């Protein structure tokens, strides 16, 4: 069974990745800014491929050159290691653009 992150795990993640905003007990959210619309769309495509390969899908919002990703694990109603893993992978994908 998937387990919720402990407060210490959440704090450790938050100190390493401060641009990910934590909504207590449930979500982690990050906004990615792009120079143009199509770069954001390319990023969303990569996010979709990663999410599908790990079967862990974020909420995605596209506002012109701003892409917002929101992560949580539904079956435990909160944050898990899967959310941290995906956040790191999404940041790596962003850094490659």
Automatic annotation (TrEMBL):
Pfam families, sorted: Pterin_4a
Reactions performed catalytically: (4aS,6R)-4a-hydroxy-L-erythro-5,6,7,8-tetrahydrobiopterin = (6R)-L-erythro-6,7-dihydrobiopterin + H2O
Protein species of origin: Fictibacillus solisalsi
GO molecular function: 4-alpha-hydroxytetrahydrobiopterin dehydratase activity
Domain of life: Bacteria
Entry keyword Lyase: yes
Family label: Belongs to the pterin-4-alpha-carbinolamine dehydratase family.
Name assigned to this protein: 4a-hydroxytetrahydrobiopterin dehydratase
NCBIfam families registered for this protein in UniProt: PRK00823.1-2
Gene Ontology biological-process entries: tetrahydrobiopterin biosynthetic process
Top EC class for this record: lyase
Entry's EC annotation: 4.2.1.96
Keyword presence, Lyase: yes
Keywords: Lyase
């Amino acid at each position: 069974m998937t387990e919720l992150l402990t407060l210490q795990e959440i704090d450790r993640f938050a100190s390493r990745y401060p641009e990910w905003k934590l909504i207590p007990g449930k979500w982690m959210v990050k906004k990615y800014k792009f120079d143009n619309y199509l770069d954001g769309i390319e990023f969303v495509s990569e996010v979709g491929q990663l999410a599908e390969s790990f079967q862990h899908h974020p909420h995605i919002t596209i506002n012109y050159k701003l892409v917002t990703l929101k992560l949580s694990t539904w079956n435990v109603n909160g944050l898990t290691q899967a959310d941290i893993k995906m956040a790191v992978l999404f940041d790596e994908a962003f850094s490659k653009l």
